[in-house]
């Protein structure tokens, strides 16, 4: 998320506020732009709450604010809090993220059909769920061997990465180099432990040569 709004408030009627929020969520399904919301309570003051609301952008947050249900929620919230609600609007500043960096390393490894040993734990586990096979490998060396067996290298049509709380997930479409070339499409789910990739689950919808790709997707060869 690239924009968050922090709400700082005091209340001794939080249960009622929570009910209002649940009703707001029910009433705005499919229209709200709020992506996630976390609520924290002060350990030293049980009437002090901080709400962290995440949005894709400031503009999407303004769309959310303009919903009539949001106005109604704000009107009902007023009598339930003590004093004023303080708001803090924050734009995300780009910063390093080990998960996206490791995802980039994994992609580079697939491209060259070899592994960067330092990016993986010594006992990294790879599981490949393919249409006609279930493949396992342990260690960066075995993973590199599988990549080399698949092809001397790979090029990417798609590599869409999203960090997760435990690692990253990627939607991919890659092609083996050499002749014939095969297209594989699927997802990669990786677990990151201690700054290195410790588990990779790769699902593949199929490995198609040019004729199979044309027949399945309607693409021209």
Essential attributes:
Quinol monooxygenase YgiN; 30% helix; elongated; monooxygenase; Alpha-Beta Plaits; 221 residues; monooxygenase activity; Nuclear Transport Factor 2, Chain: A
SSE order and pairing:
Elements: E1 3-10, H1 14-27, E2 36-42, E3 45-55, H2 58-65, H3 68-77, E4 86-91, H4 98-112, E5 120-130, E6 133-138, H5 140-150, E7 154-164, E8 167-176, E9 183-193, E10 196-208, H6 210-217
Parallel strand pairs: 5-10
Antiparallel strand pairs: 1-3, 1-4, 2-3, 5-6, 7-8, 8-9, 9-10
Helix pairs in contact: 1-3
Describe this structure in words.
By secondary structure, the chain is an alpha+beta fold. The protein is built from 6 helices and 10 strands, in the order E-H-E-E-H-H-E-H-E-E-H-E-E-E-E-H. The protein folds into 2 domains: 3-91, 2-Layer Sandwich (Alpha-Beta Plaits), CATH 3.30.70.100; 98-217, Nuclear Transport Factor 2, Chain: A (Roll), CATH 3.10.450.50. Helices cover 30% and strands 43% of the residues. A hairpin with a 2-residue loop joins strand 2 and strand 3 (45-55). Helix 1 (14-27) runs antiparallel to helix 3 (68-77). The longest helix is centred in the middle third of the chain and has 15 residues, at 98-112. The model has no long low-confidence stretch (mean pLDDT 93).
């Amino acid at each position: 998320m690239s924009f968050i709004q922090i709400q700082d408030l005091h209340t001794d009627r939080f249960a009622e506020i929570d009910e209002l929020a649940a009703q707001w969520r029910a009433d705005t399904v499919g229209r709200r732009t709020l992506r996630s919301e976390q609520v924290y309570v002060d350990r030293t003051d049980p009437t002090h709450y901080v709400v962290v609301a995440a949005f894709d952008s400031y503009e999407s947050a303004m769309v959310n604010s303009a919903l009539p249900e949001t106005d109604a929620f704000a009107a009902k919230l007023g009598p339930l809090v003590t004093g004023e609600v303080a708001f803090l609007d924050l734009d995300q500043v780009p910063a390093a993220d080990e998960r996206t960096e490791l995802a980039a390393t994994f992609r580079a490894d697939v491209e060259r059909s070899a592994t960067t040993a330092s990016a993986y734990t010594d006992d990294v586990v790879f599981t490949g769920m393919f249409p006609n096979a279930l493949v396992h490998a342990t260690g960066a060396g075995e993973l590199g061997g599988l990549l080399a067996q698949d092809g001397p290298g790979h090029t990417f049509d798609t590599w869409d990465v999203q960090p997760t709380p435990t690692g990253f997930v990627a939607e991919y479409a890659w092609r083996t180099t050499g002749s014939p070339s095969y297209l594989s499409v699927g997802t990669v789910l990786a677990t990151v432990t201690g700054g290195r990739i410790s588990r990779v689950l790769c699902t593949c919808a199929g490995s198609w040569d040019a004729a199979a790709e044309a027949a399945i997707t309607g693409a021209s060869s």
